[in-house]
Amino acid sequence: MQANVKVDLLRLFHRQHGACSTLKCSPAEGNDGYHDSFDMDEIEKELGATRFRKLIDFIIKRKSSLVSHGHRIWPNDHEEINKRGAEVHCVLARDLEAFLAGGN
């Protein structure tokens, strides 16, 4: 993807998800461009463990879910055995936006 197209897509994404743009992470990116979601590891680092747990509870209460796009795979030697070689899941931007806009 060309750099100028990438910048324009990011600007559009941040206009659509204003509360998400306050975080220091970018949307998950795959071969086909940006996805309407964020890497859960990046979100956990940004929010901290306690707020991230609140986000997961919020997602469950909304009857939403985490998604996977194949954007990243955990390494085969990951410290958590169940994550070894598995796809990293993503938090949907709409869920994160609602969580942050709600003052969480």
User: Taking all residues together, what is the mean pLDDT?
Assistant: 84
Task: Trace the largest sheet across and list its strands.
Answer: 1-2
Shape: globular
Low-confidence stretches: none
Number of strands: 4
Largest sheet: 2 strands, antiparallel
How large is the count of helical segments? 4
Q: Structurally, how many domains make up the residues?
A: 1
Rg, Cα atoms, Å: 14 Å
Broad structural category: mainly alpha
Quote the distance from N terminus to C terminus.
Answer: 34 Å
Query: What's the SSE pattern?
Result: HEEEHHEH
* β-strand amount: 5-15%
**What fraction, in percent, of the residue positions are helical?**
40-55%
Short characterization:
With 104 residues, the chain is mainly alpha-helical.
Please provide a written account of the structure.
There is one protein chain. Helices cover 42% and strands 10% of the residues. By secondary structure, it is mostly helical. It has one domain. A two-stranded antiparallel sheet has the order 1-2. Helix 2 (40-47) crosses helix 3 (49-61). The longest helix has 14 residues, at 3-16.
Write the layout of secondary structure elements.
Layout: H1 3-16, E1 29-30, E2 33-34, E3 37-39, H2 40-47, H3 49-61, E4 90-92, H4 93-101
Antiparallel strand pairs: 1-2, 3-4
Helix pairs in contact: 2-3
Quick tags:
single chain, 104 residues, mainly alpha, two-stranded antiparallel ribbon, 4 strands
